[in-house]
Amino acid sequence: MGLSKRVSSWSVEEVLEWVQDQYPTHMGTLHKAIIKHAISGRALLRLKDHHLELLGVEAEEQQQEILQGLLLLRVHEEINELNEICSECFSL
Questions:
Q1: Is residue 18 a contact partner of residue 10, using CB atoms and an 8 Å limit?
Q2: Which of 28, 33, 51, 52 is the most buried (most CB within 10 A)?
Q3: pLDDT digits (tens, 9 = 90+) for 1-39
Q4: What is the domain partition of the chain in residue ranges?
Q5: Where along the sequence do coiled-coil regions lie (predicted)?
Q6: Closest to 48 in 3D by CA, of 36, 32, 66
């Protein structure tokens, strides 16, 4: 899944698509939880290890794998935000 859209703007369906693309082996565990808890992109960016455990990802190795992916999403989101700020500064 490309990141042409801000992660914080993702719908539940786009979160499901990202999880399917990145972690297909965890999709069975996460699919129902994402829908049940209506996890949007904004909520996805805030997930921590204890949230993953509550969502059914109990193995620490699996949690770490997903947390690394979430960290990359957060970094990408921050870069996009900084780019927007810089483009606003230069347009003044």
A1: yes
A2: 52
A3: 556 689 999 999 999 999 999 999 888 889 999 999 999
A4: 8-90
A5: none
A6: 66
